[in-house]
Amino acid sequence: MSASTDYPIDAIRADFPMLKRPMNGRPLVYLDSAATTHKPQQVIDRLSRFYSEEYATVRRGAYSLSHASTALFEGVRAQAAAFFNAGRPEEIVFVRGVTEAVNLVATAIWSRLRPGDEVLVSTMEHHSNIVPWQLVAARAGAIVRPIPIDDRGELDLEALEGMLSEKTRLVSVVHVSNGLGTVNPVAEVARLAHSVGALCMVDGAQSAPHMAIDVQALGCDLFACSGHKMLGPTGVGVLWGRYDVLASLDPYQGGGEMIDVVTFDGTTFDDPPYRFEAGTPAFAQVVGFGAALSYLSALGMDRIADWDAHLLDYATAALDTVPGLRRIGTAAHRSGLVSFVIDGTHPADIGSILDQEGIAIRVGQHCVQPVMARFGLHSTARASFGVYTTTAEVDALVRGLHTARDILV
Ligand code: PLP
User: What band does 99 get if pLDDT is binned at 50, 70 and 90?
Assistant: First the structure.
């Protein structure tokens, strides 16, 4: 049976209350899931039940409610470990999202960087996988170098190979580009990074919502994702790290719960993951994130990936019927989104006209200015998909683009 007939799209959509609300007098067509996804009722209910019936701090209380809350929190850590096929639950660090995960790792390896050391990132990185490295590199006298991409938006692996040297400390690449949709061969990148003794980090912000992630099979050392892009609440994400790698990293933030012994002569730190979770964690959001992982698991990540591939094929063919439309990002392996420009129009105007039709897309630089520079653009329009996106919504987008073109060109 094909993905399109096997996938319970009507039942899925019924789970998402936001999808039922109208927008500008039309049914909402939400095509901005790469920015953030909507939440199924199961996640909303779980959060509500936690706050109404189970809420108490984690890790500190001497009372039953706190023990139960801690068990739920640590249960989600174990659930996330299984979801990503981590070696053990202690490899899962709860963070706010990918941005915090990269800042954490960059700050944690800062003391290891020496003048002239190099951190390699690809040209297609989100700013959150560029700027944190630049901040620590500037302090350490290290250098952040971009790995080139070709005209289709594919990573130049040969160039990467040529850039690697004994100076390379870390290679950090995005798994799926939020600007181009490219799926990068991260296992190959990890193999190359390891060949010179460098660490490999993967930004999974756009891959984790759409495909099964097996961190051990990817072969990287560190992997990050954001819960709010995976049907979960805001303010929670995961940094996975191989345990020996996490254990070798300095703390990121200081505060409660990340310590072993504190004196004015010096402080010793707890083991991972707690060493990296200073202060009261976002434990309610973590519980909600657990419900999101359960939802995704019940649906099946492979089925989600098949549906995504179906939508992408459908959208690619449909968008190519719009006169003057040029897709930006034509890699052989893509996922989750289509970025495009239309001759004679500005993406911001397209976004406004679509909005009047109830169609929500993202327009702008998508936090990937080096990608825009690589393609000689200031901005693109981007339609991105979630587990609840339908081909009928893609049709509405294409109709809207024809209207926008009639008005603007
Ligand atoms: N990396 C990629 C590829 C993204 O698309 C995003 C967000 O859009 C991020 C990183 C940053 O994620 P967050 O804002 O959740 O930290």
Answer: very high
Q: How confident is residue 6, by pLDDT bands cut at 50, 70 and 90?
A: confident
Task: Compute the distance from residue 205 Cα to the ligand 1 centre, in Å.
Answer: 5
| CATH 3.90.1150.10 in the chain, residue ranges | 3-30+300-408
Give the pair of three-digit tokens for residue 166.
Answer: 């004994």
Number of residues that make up the chain: 409
* Strands 325-327 and 337-342, bridge-based pairing: antiparallel
Q: Which CATH number does 3-30+300-408 carry? A: 3.90.1150.10
Residue ranges matching CATH 3.40.640.10 in the chain: 45-297
Residue 5 has pLDDT above 70, yes or no: no
Burial of 248 (0-12, 13-18, 19+ CB in 10 A): middle
Q: Residue 99 Cα, ligand 1 centroid: separation in angstroms?
A: 6
- Asked if residue 206 has its Cβ within 6 Å of ligand 1, the reply is yes
Report the pLDDT value the prediction gives residue 2, as an integer from 0 to 100: 60
CA of 302 to the centre of ligand 1 (A): 22
Average pLDDT of the segment spanning 154-182: 98
- Which atom belonging to ligand 1 lies closest to the Cα atom of 100? 16
CA-proximal residue: ligand 1, atom 6 (nearest): 205
Q: Is the CB of 294 under 6 A from ligand 1?
A: no
Query: Is CATH 2.40.340.10 what the domain over 45-297 is classified as, yes or no?
Result: no
User: In sequence order, which residues have a C-beta less than 8 Å from that of residue 262 and are 6 or more positions away?
Assistant: none
pLDDT at residue 59, rounded to an integer: 86
What pLDDT was estimated at residue 322? 97
